[in-house]
Specification:
Blueprint (H helix, E strand, L loop, with lengths): L1 H17 L4 H18 L13 H30 L8 E6 L5 H13 L3 E7 L2 E6 L7 H20 L1
Helix pairs in contact: 1-2, 3-5, 4-5
Length: 161
C-alpha cells in the first residue's frame, strides 16, 4: 500500500510542478514517479492508509488556508516591529508543551512555527518545543502556548495524527 500511495503522491507532485495534463507529460511523470517509488518508497511512512482518506485532505486544505493567513498576519507584525523607530522587540525562548504524538505531526508543527515570521523552533525534546519568539507577550505558559501553536496544533491533529 505504501508503494501505491508513494507513486500517486509522486505523480501528483509532478503534475503540480509541470502544470500540464498531456499524454506525454503523464507518461513522463508516471515513469519518474515509478523510478522514485522503486528507490525511495521503502523509506516512506508506515500506515499510509491515513494519507488516502478524503476527510484528511479536506482538513489539510483548511489548515493550509489558516497557515497562510497566520503567515500574513505575522509578516505584518514583524514588518511593524522592524519599521517602528523604537523597534519594539522582547525576544525570548519559551518552552511549549504539545499534545501531538506522532513524529510526523510534531515535525509539521515545528516547521509551521518556524515558517511563521517572528517564531523559530529551536529544539524538540519529547513533548516539549523550545521556540524563539521575537516578542514574548506573556509569562504564562498556557497563554503563550495558545498564542504560538494553538491553531496549528488543532488542525494538524485532524489530518496528521
Amino acid at each position: 500500500m505504501r508503494y501505491i500511495a508513494f507513486f500517486i503522491l509522486g505523480l501528483i507532485f509532478w503534475l503540480l510542478l509541470t502544470f500540464k495534463i498531456t499524454v506525454a507529460n503523464l507518461v513522463v511523470g508516471s515513469v519518474a514517479s515509478l523510478v522514485c517509488t522503486v528507490i525511495f518508497a521503502r523509506y516512506y511512512f508506515a500506515g499510509v492508509v491515513k494519507f488516502i482518506q478524503p476527510y484528511r485532505w479536506l482538513w489539510f486544505l483548511v489548515y493550509l488556508a489558516i497557515f497562510i493567513i497566520s503567515c500574513i498576519k505575522a509578516n505584518l507584525d514583524v514588518a511593524y516591529r522592524v519599521l517602528h523607530p523604537k523597534m519594539p522587540i522582547k525576544p525570548g525562548i519559551v518552552k511549549v508543551k504539545t499534545s501531538l504524538k506522532s513524529e510526523f505531526a510534531k515535525t509539521l508543527l515545528a516547521n509551521s512555527i518556524t515558517m511563521t515570521p517572528g517564531t523559530l523552533t529551536v529544539d524538540i525534546i519529547g513533548e516539549y518545543f523550545y521556540i524563539h519568539w521575537i516578542y514574548v507577550r506573556s509569562e504564562d505558559p498556557e497563554v503563550y502556548t495558545k498564542m504560538i501553536m494553538g491553531v496549528f496544533e488543532k488542525y494538524i491533529k485532524k489530518f496528521a495524527e
